[in-house]
């Protein structure tokens, strides 16, 4: 059986020392190994930016796709071979800026994949510009006077559109993150895990210490019911989104089980030859 | 050539399409060779629409220049179409709506007033205008009184006997009225039924593309609805699921294209289908397919651009975008089938090419070829040998023989093709990377030597493909011609008829139709055009995009003239002939 080591690669990540993405990678490697998955059964699909490099450092198959397009790529991979475990991963700019449209539709489909967003509230690789999740008033190279826009409420959007699994995690708590990833991968359907993953180089506001002071854990609230979508929205509003744990979980069929052409055999494993007589019958239906 | 051309026109939503379809489908089933062309607008009700049917003694591929019979439901149908009516043509009009038809000119038409709306109301509802018109048609072209009955039962049987009966009543009313008042006025050519006595296949290019994909093992289509490509999706929805094929309506064309790339990466033969606006949105993923060396098939059914353009009209103006679109440089194949059967054959072949060369394959048609339903002999399509070649893959045994980490996905090879693993294969791990990457595909790398190696490897992949064996069809003398007509894709039938007419006049004429434009079959094009005194490049766009490619790749600048059309309609034979007549003058003008 594969161990966490099998999900590591030889190349060292090029992230800055202390980057929150190290924790995300480690938690993911640990989670898939503890679920008993083999490296060839797992595909990590990423967009671009610092977070997008995760596909290169994760020891399964990978697809380092285009900016904002990790979800449609991952959707295609899953529908191409539904037997694979598919992880989509990227940053807040990638997922909630250019890729925001895809998020809503992946949620609607309930496509069976795990979507990990490394949310650092800034554009890191391009050396520090305002991101869709930067708070209003956030100062950066592209908002010298402070950001004029409200931050996008991606998690709430996923909740409102019926996401069947929604959680938040924090790179300062790898243990909790690992458990959340395990739950998300195990979940049959779409799961979004928004991870507070601080950028230690360019974001001097939303730092590890800042999150430690401000984030609360749902686990500490005994009365919380993850089957109650309204409660999830309410807690997000009350905490200004600064909350970790499983916000919402609901069991329903995954897209590949109910879509047009759903089949128990993966598309990539189908016999492609159509009997000549079948083809002739199809031709004759066009008369 | 004995033939019959017929058209019905009215406001959109009045049953014009169903009138045309009933006539065309019935004739096809009786063994006639039929070509149908829909003229329609981007709205649901109102506006002028018409449906033209051409019946020929053999397969045609084109709806004809002239018109023998026109059925006008309203005056605007006359305004829009009277010019097309031939001398001695029959103009049937709804006298319940038009008291006296108004058309300028002194053409000699046979005017046939028929109270179409009134008769339809008498039969039960004005909706049945189309049935009255069908009956009138049957009488005037010499079809039996009950010719349409089987189709009426098939179409309306589900709605109950009463509906079937009242439709038949409407048809018969039209038939009896027209036979008594006008009698048979036009002749149909001889039907040429299939061996089993039945009709030919009645297929559009779009339907043929979807069937070709299915036969080739495509088991995934992601697309976004767009005129004129949506029938590909409909056909896939009808026939893919039975064989485990999945169809996704994506949120946009960006997602559609990239989903299909994801599915191909996972080992499934996958495609997307679209038209101009969607094709533009796919440019970034076409590049992704190129750099990650992931097979991909994209069908672009061209329509008039730019922007939203004329969404329901035909054009061939995406050639440049298909040849050059996406930033950076990638290997790609662009196929331009010229007939419905080639739509089937090339759609099937596209999947083999995509897998062999691990690059995007663009299959280009247009509204004219994609949406025009036409008679195709069963043998012609059934005779296409579809082979499924899953080349350029690495087997499990080969991977097992390697240690973990030994397999290099983007290994630099002489052919440029590197054996591909797919997720699920042990020891085959790699990252399909949109960044420049090394041979091992494990990380992005900016080293300049590696960059040159990987770029060169990708760009030489297609050197091994013999496009000259595949990429064109030529008709005419090979050594020298007075004039050679050149086109690509859907224009083959009209250019072919124009060439035939020139030959009848004693002009030594060649006809070169391109079926692949990337890679460009330049050896053949050069050979076939070098003996032509005049070269007329016929294309449905305003800048002569194909002519530009010929000039750039082959030459002959001083012999090429452009025959261009970009008003949204397909070429007529006469338009091509008119240009040919002028082309010597054009060339003389340059030489002066």
UniProtKB/TrEMBL annotation, chain A:
UniProt entry keywords in alphabetical sequence: Iron, Iron-sulfur, Magnesium, Metal-binding, Oxidoreductase, Thiamine pyrophosphate
Stored InterPro entries: 2-oxoacid:Fd_oxidoreductase, OFOB, PFO_beta_C, THDP-binding, TPP_enzyme_TPP-bd
Listed GO MF terms: iron-sulfur cluster binding; metal ion binding; oxidoreductase activity, acting on the aldehyde or oxo group of donors, iron-sulfur protein as acceptor; thiamine pyrophosphate binding
Region (Disordered): 130-150
GO BP terms, alphabetized: cellular respiration
Necessary cofactors: Mg(2+); thiamine diphosphate; [4Fe-4S] cluster
Stretches assigned to coiled coil: none
Segments forming domain Pyruvate ferredoxin oxidoreductase beta subunit C-terminal: 199-261
CDD domains: TPP_OGFOR
Gene3D superfamilies, per database record: 3.40.50.970
Protein name: 2-oxoacid ferredoxin oxidoreductase
Native source species: Paludifilum halophilum
UniProtKB/TrEMBL annotation, chain B:
A single GO molecular function term of this UniProt record: oxidoreductase activity, acting on the aldehyde or oxo group of donors
Coiled-coil regions listed in the entry: none
InterPro entries on file: 2-oxoacid/accept_OxRdtase_asu, PFOR_II, Pyruvate:ferred/Flavod_OxRd, Pyrv/ketoisovalerate_OxRed_cat, Pyrv_Fd/Flavodoxin_OxRdtase_N, Pyrv_flavodox_OxRed_cen, THDP-binding, Transketo_C/PFOR_II
Domain Pyruvate:ferredoxin oxidoreductase core: 482-576
Keyword Kinase applies: no
Occurrences of domain Pyruvate/ketoisovalerate oxidoreductase catalytic (ranges): 13-176
Residues covered by the Pyruvate flavodoxin/ferredoxin oxidoreductase pyrimidine binding domain: 212-456
Keyword entries, A-Z: Oxidoreductase
Oxidoreductase listed as a keyword: yes
Alphabetical list of CDD domains matching this protein: TPP_PYR_PFOR_IOR-alpha_like
Pfam families membership: PFOR_II, POR, POR_N
GO biological process: response to oxidative stress
Name of the protein: 2-oxoglutarate ferredoxin oxidoreductase subunit alpha
């Amino acid at each position: 059986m594969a161990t966490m080591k099998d999900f590591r690669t030889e190349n060292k990540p090029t992230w800055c020392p202390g980057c929150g993405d190290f924790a995300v990678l480690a938690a993911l490697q640990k989670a898939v190994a503890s679920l008993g998955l083999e490296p060839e059964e797992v595909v990590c699909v990423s967009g671009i930016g610092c977070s997008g490099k995760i596909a290169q450092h994760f020891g399964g198959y990978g697809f380092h796709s285009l900016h904002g397009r990790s979800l449609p790529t991952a959707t295609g991979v899953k529908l191409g071979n539904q037997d694979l475990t598919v992880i989509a991963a990227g940053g807040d700019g990638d997922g909630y800026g250019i890729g925001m449209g895809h998020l809503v539709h992946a949620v609607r489909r309930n496509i069976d994949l795990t979507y990990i967003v490394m949310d650092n509230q800034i554009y890191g690789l391009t050396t520090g510009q305002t991101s869709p999740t930067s708070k209003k008033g956030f100062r950066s190279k592209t908002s010298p006077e402070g950001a004029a826009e409200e931050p996008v409420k991606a998690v709430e959007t996923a909740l409102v559109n019926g996401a069947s699994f929604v959680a938040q995690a924090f790179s300062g708590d790898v243990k909790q993150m690992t458990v959340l990833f395990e739950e998300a991968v195990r979940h049959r359907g779409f799961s979004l895990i928004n991870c507070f993953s601080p950028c230690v180089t360019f974001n001097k506001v939303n730092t590890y210490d800042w999150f430690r002071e401000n984030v609360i854990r749902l686990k500490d609230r005994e009365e919380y019911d993850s089957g109650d979508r309204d409660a999830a929205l309410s807690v997000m509003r009350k905490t200004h989104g600064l909350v970790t744990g499983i916000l919402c979980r609901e069991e329903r069929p995954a897209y590949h089980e109910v879509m047009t052409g759903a089949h128990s055999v993966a598309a990539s494993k189908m016999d492609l030859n159509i009997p000549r007589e079948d083809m002739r019958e199809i031709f004759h239906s066009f008369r | 050539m004995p033939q019959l051309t017929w058209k019905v026109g009215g406001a959109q939503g009045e049953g014009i399409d169903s009138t045309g379809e009933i006539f065309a489908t019935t004739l096809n089933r009786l063994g006639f060779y039929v070509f149908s062309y829909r003229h329609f607008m981007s709205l649901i009700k109102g506006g002028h629409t018409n449906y033209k049917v051409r019946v020929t003694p053999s397969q045609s591929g084109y709806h004809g220049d002239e018109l023998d019979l026109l059925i006008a439901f309203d005056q605007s149908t006359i305004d829009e179409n009277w010019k097309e009516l031939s001398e001695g043509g029959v103009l049937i009009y709804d006298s319940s709506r038009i008291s006296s038809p108004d058309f300028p000119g002194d053409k000699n038409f046979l005017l046939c007033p028929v109270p179409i709306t009134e008769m339809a109301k008498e039969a039960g509802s004005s909706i049945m205008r189309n049935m009255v018109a069908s009956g009138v048609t049957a009488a005037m072209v010499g079809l039996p009184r009950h010719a349409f009955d089987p189709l009426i039962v098939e179409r309306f049987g589900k709605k109950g006997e009463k509906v079937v009966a009242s439709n038949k009543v409407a048809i018969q009313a039209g038939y009896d009225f027209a036979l008594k008042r006008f009698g048979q006025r036009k002749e149909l050519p001889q039907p040429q039924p299939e061996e089993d006595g039945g009709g030919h296949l009645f297929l559009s290019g779009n339907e043929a593309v979807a069937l070709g994909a299915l036969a080739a093992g495509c088991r995934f289509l992601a697309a976004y609805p767009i005129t004129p490509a949506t029938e590909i999706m409909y056909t896939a929805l009808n026939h893919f699921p039975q064989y485990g094929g999945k169809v996704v309506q994506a949120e946009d064309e960006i997602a559609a294209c990239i989903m299909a790339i994801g599915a191909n990466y996972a080992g499934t033969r996958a495609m997307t289908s679209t038209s101009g606006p969607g094709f533009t949105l796919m440019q970034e993923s076409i590049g992704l397919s190129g750099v990650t060396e992931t097979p991909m098939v994209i069908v672009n059914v061209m329509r008039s651009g730019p922007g939203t353009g004329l969404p329901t009209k035909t054009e061939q103006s995406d050639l440049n975008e298909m040849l050059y679109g996406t930033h950076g440089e990638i290997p790609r194949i662009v196929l331009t089938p010229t007939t419905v059967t080639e739509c089937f054959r090339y759609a099937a072949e596209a999947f083999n090419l995509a897998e062999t060369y691990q690059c995007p394959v663009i299959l280009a048609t247009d509204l004219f070829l994609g949406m025009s339903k036409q008679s195709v002999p069963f043998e012609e399509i059934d005779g296409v040998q579809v082979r499924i070649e899953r080349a350029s893959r690495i087997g499990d045994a080969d991977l097992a023989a390697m240690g973990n980490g030994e397999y290099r996905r983007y290994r630099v090879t002489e052919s440029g093709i590197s054996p591909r693993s797919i997720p699920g294969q042990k020891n085959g791990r790699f990252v399909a990377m949109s960044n420049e990457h090394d041979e091992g595909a494990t990380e992005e790398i900016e080293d300049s030597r590696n960059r040159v190696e990987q770029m060169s490897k990708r760009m030489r992949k297609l050197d091994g493909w013999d496009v000259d064996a595949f990429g064109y069809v030529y008709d005419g003398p090979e050594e020298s011609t007075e004039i050679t007509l050149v086109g690509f894709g859907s224009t083959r039938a009209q250019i072919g008829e124009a060439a035939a007419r020139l030959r009848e006049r004693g002009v030594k004429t060649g006809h070169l139709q391109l079926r692949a434009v990337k890679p460009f079959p330049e050896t053949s094009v050069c050979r076939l055009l070098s003996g032509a005194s005049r070269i007329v490049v016929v294309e449905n766009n305003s800048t002569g995009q194909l002519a530009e490619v010929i000039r750039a790749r082959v030459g002959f600048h001083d012999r090429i003239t452009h025959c261009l059309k970009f008003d949204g309609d397909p070429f007529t034979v006469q338009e091509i002939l008119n240009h040919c007549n002028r082309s010597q003058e054009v060339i003389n003008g340059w030489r002066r």
